[in-house]
Prior knowledge:
Its cofactor is Mg(2+). Helices cover about 35% and strands about 10% of the residues. The protein contains five helices and four strands.
Amino acid sequence: MVPFIKSCAYWCHLKQCRVYIVMELAENGSLLDIIRRDTYIDEVRARRWFQHIVDGVEYCHERGVVHRDIKCENLLMDIEYNIKLSDFGFARGHMKPKNGVSPLSETFCGSYAYASPEILRGVPYQPQLSDIWSMGVVLYAVVFGRLPFDDTNYNQLLKVSSRHIQPGTF
């Protein structure tokens, strides 16, 4: 079992042509559930949980896997309140840099509120860096109890999230 990544087992029942995905139980729900319940997350928990997120994402990136949908809802809590990265539905493999060049992604994935400015602009982006942007949005939500950007107005979201960020510098 990999720390800070939700483990899954696949089971197929051939008679009924159904695929069942069985996941490790998240006894304490998602990080979003905790934020909604507690509103204020103390610094000790925030640091611990963010380190779990960093460790899980780093593990993936070192193996050439990008998540592309990091958000509070996809960070699940086990019985001991350890965060586990889950929902790899938008994940992509084989994304390790080759000859010092990181492959770009052109697919919009994830949620507007957590998306990097490049994704919102619809330009090719480095998915590892977009995962890191999303981690920053999660950290903001943990510390302040709300998201940094309002995602109900796409144009305003694009304007605000891009402020002071030059294309290609993130």
